[in-house]
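hey m, so remember when u said the tokens were messed up on ur end? i reran from scratch. heres the input so u can diff it against urs
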Amino acid sequence: MAHRIVVAPELGEPVGYAHAVVAAPGRLVHLGGQTALGPDGEIHGTTLPEQLDVVAGNVVAALRAAGGVPEDIVSIQIFVTDPADYRAQLPALGAVWKQHFGRHYPATGLFGVTRLFDEPALIELMCVAVIPEEGAR
């Protein structure tokens, strides 16, 4: 049984996120916040799309290490230092998203923050995934 995306008819149409996700039975995985931090300890990229490319790759790598795939993500919290810039770059960000996550859009929240732990970081993702029980994919 796959995770089920729920669209509430009385809410506006969700674009790039889900109103709700009913997770299939499985193993719950909480992924630590991921920024564009590379293996060298440096933040890579100077624009939101460049950093999202690294961030999304980091999320997928952490999830794979736990035995999951991007479709197992049920919830994402996006933290950005400039929400207006995020909105302005939605087409480019959407293209990067699709490279890493395909057309999978979990329940998502976007939060503007003053800054992130590493000063040059513009974006951080925190995710929750549920890896379905064996044979449920």
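this time it looks ok to me. Residues 4-132 form a domain with the 60s Ribosomal Protein L30; Chain: A; fold (CATH 3.30.1330.40). if urs says something different then somethings off w ur setup not the seq
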